[in-house]
Write a structure and sequence with these properties.
By secondary structure, the chain is an alpha/beta fold. 37% of the residues lie in helices and 16% in strands. It has helices at 2-37, 138-141, 160-172, 182-189, 201-204, 209-215, 224-232, 249-269, 272-286, and strands at 71-80, 85-88, 95-99, 103-112, 121-127, 157-158, 176-179, 198-200, 291-293, 299-301. Strand 5 (121-127), helix 2 and strand 6 form a beta-alpha-beta unit. The N and C termini lie far apart (84 Å).
């Protein structure tokens, strides 16, 4: 009888655990869609509490419930929360950097990568600053003063915790995240993503150590801009790359998705290794700045505003 009672208690506990798990999953789904559709943070002194620039369309709970295998592009931007630690060398008299600036998450953009609405942004969170920002790093991040302040921001401002919960839900649902240089992004988010759910174009398009040694090349990480210009023909987009307002994390997430599509096509055609090798050979000879593709499909250096760049001719054929 004692054994039977224990078995009954065990069965009851198992059933309760299963019920709680189902309840937690349902609750997580409800929380996710509620967070995706909530209004941005606004301070009491904000001049326009009801107005902001919403650059995304949240997932539809009735038709876009995330499921295993769904693909999303992601890009994150950061600001500096402290100055880099430096000292003047006693031997050279020059400044030496001892420690880089401490970074804080500023923006996360997520773009649909599959389905009828592929390419449409579904999450574009600006993360509210909880301490003073030392440098907005605008030329790299696209973040402007006021974007992260509840009394001034015209963006979809939220908290780091809310952003984390939404991303954690996508990961737990088995979705695949595509981006460029995701290791740093995930570390800043404290987000652990199974390797099988990550497609990092910085890794996918990296020359193998074996191939690099054979060709006498250095297997450096290729920038998103360089890859996009070579594989997507977007070189002209980067002629004004120094424009401080020219950066857009939504666009970067879309570019990463497009690069992943190209990667799969090159794999299918058996042209991936040659394409990667061609890019590294070009970079060794001419540098890794964005290129333009001529009418013959050959790369050429993007001409600068002053007419420089050496790319005014018919391109340079790779040998």
């Amino acid at each position: 009888e004692a054994a039977a009672n224990e078995a009954a208690r065990t069965a009851h506990a198992t059933a309760m655990a299963a019920a709680n798990a189902i309840g937690d999953l349902r609750s997580s789904t409800e929380v996710f869609f509620r967070l995706c559709n909530e209004a941005p943070l606004r301070g009491n002194q904000h001049p326009y509490p009801a107005q902001y620039q919403r650059m995304f369309e949240p997932l539809d709970a009735s038709t876009e419930l995330p499921k295993p295998g769904d693909v999303f592009g992601i890009d994150a931007e950061f600001v500096a929360l402290s100055a880099p630690e430096e000292r003047v060398s006693k031997t050279t008299g020059r400044k030496e950097r001892l420690r880089p600036s401490r970074l804080g998450l500023a923006r996360v953009s997520v773009v649909r990568g599959s389905g009828a609405r592929a390419g449409v942004c579904c999450i574009d969170d600006y993360v509210s600053a909880v301490e003073p920002v030392y440098d907005y790093l605008t030329s790299f991040s696209g973040i402007l003063p006021g974007d992260l302040e509840s009394n001034r921001s015209t963006k979809h401002l939220t908290t780091l915790k809310r952003t984390y919960v939404k991303l954690r839900y996508l990961v737990d649902r088995g979705c695949t995240l595509v981006g460029h240089g995701l290791k740093k992004d995930f570390a800043m988010l404290n987000l652990v993503v199974p390797t099988a759910q990550v497609r990092d174009t910085a890794v996918l398009y990296r020359l193998s150590d074996e191939a690099a040694a054979k060709e006498g090349l250095r297997p450096r990480i290729l920038s998103l801009k360089f890859l996009a210009s070579w594989l997507l023909g977007t070189g002209s987009r980067f002629q004004n790359a120094n424009d401080p307002l020219g950066h857009d994390s939504i666009e970067d997430a879309r570019v990463a998705l497009s690069l992943y599509v190209v990667y799969r096509k090159l794999q299918e055609k058996g042209e991936l290794e040659k394409t990667i090798l061609d890019m590294y050979k070009w970079g060794k000879r001419f540098g890794f700045a964005p290129v333009e593709l001529g009418s013959d499909g050959q790369p050429r250096v993007v001409a600068t505003a002053g007419g420089g760049g050496g790319g005014g001719g018919g391109g340079v054929k790779l040998q």
